[in-house]
Design a protein that fits this description.
- The chain is elongated.
- With 254 residues, it is of the alpha/beta class.
- It has a five-stranded parallel sheet with strand order 2-1-6-5-7, sandwiched between helices. A two-stranded antiparallel sheet has the order 3-4.
- It has two domains: 153 residues, Alpha/beta knot, CATH 3.40.1280; 66 residues, Orthogonal Bundle (Trp Operon Repressor, Chain A).
- The mean pLDDT is 93.
- The longest helix has 21 residues.
- Helix 3 packs across helix 5 and helix 7 crosses helix 8.
- It is built from eight helices and nine strands.
């Protein structure tokens, strides 16, 4: 099945590089992704192609006008299935995650609206926007980069895009635990060797090592993820061991 994504933006040329390389090119070449870019200025009606105006009530910056934005959304919705998500890229939206990427990847059709300047006229939200997504607690100059991030993340979940079946389910954050370290040839580099377990080929030991290393890395770098992770009793015991090791290390360093 082909997934269709319509992107509504004032700067469609921004997508030409990122969306035509690597996995994104592969997805489009295999007709797994139908990516359509729409210039919102094409939906203006004046000779100057005006897509923004000063805000009522004053304040700095410009606001994207409702007429061309609504017209662009309605154009993209013409042959869309019922309840097609219309998603506004905004720092006020729900924070993007691996789980949201999987959720969106199940949709046959998405419309991504890229805001600019100080934002869009709020009547666009009221009329047609069904969801709002942020890629983090910071502000960018526009919604184009967040849209690219979202497209890249969800395309990984389309069957046939990644080489290894189920690879996306083994990514960091797939189950709340970061991935274990990765190694390739040569077996030794500048005095550092590949862990022996990776070269011995014992499946059970290898899986256990990867899980333990993933837990260790999560404990060290993103302990907040462990609060929501589905852990076994053995894994909780392992976290306790990490805590004891860290406490002894800190004590000996004093």
């Amino acid at each position: 099945m082909t997934m269709r994504i319509d992107v509504l933006t004032l700067f469609p040329a921004m997508f030409q590089g990122p969306m035509t390389e690597s996995m994104l090119w592969k997805a489009r070449d295999r007709q797994l992704l139908d990516l359509r870019l729409h210039d919102i200025r094409d939906f203006t009606t004046d000779k100057h192609r005006t897509a923004d105006d000063i805000p009522y009530g004053g304040g700095g910056g410009m606001i994207m006008k409702p007429e061309p934005v609504v017209a662009a959304i309605e154009y993209a919705l013409q042959d869309a299935p019922p309840r097609t998500p219309v998603i506004l890229m905004t720092p006020q939206g729900r924070v993007f995650s691996h789980a949201i990427a999987k959720e969106l990847a199940e949709q046959p059709h998405l419309i991504l609206l890229c805001g600019r300047y100080e934002g869009i006229d709020d009547r666009v939200r009221q009329l047609l926007v069904t969801d709002e997504i942020s890629i983090g607690d910071y502000v960018l100059t526009g919604g184009e980069l967040p849209a690219m991030v979202i497209i890249d993340a969800l395309v990984r979940h389309i069957p046939g895009v990644l080489g290894a079946e189920g690879a996306a389910d083994r990514d960091s954050h797939a189950d709340g635990i970061l991935e274990a370290p990765h190694y390739t040839r040569p077996p030794e580099f500048r005095g550092l060797s590949v862990p022996a377990v990776l070269t011995e080929g014992h499946g059970a030991k290898l899986a256990q090592w990867r899980r333990e290393q993933g837990l260790r890395r999560t404990w060290e770098r993103r302990p907040d993820l462990l609060l929501k992770a589905d852990l076994t009793e053995d894994e909780r015991y392992l976290l306790g061991r990490f805590a004891d090791e860290d406490a002894r290390r800190l004590s000996s360093a004093k």
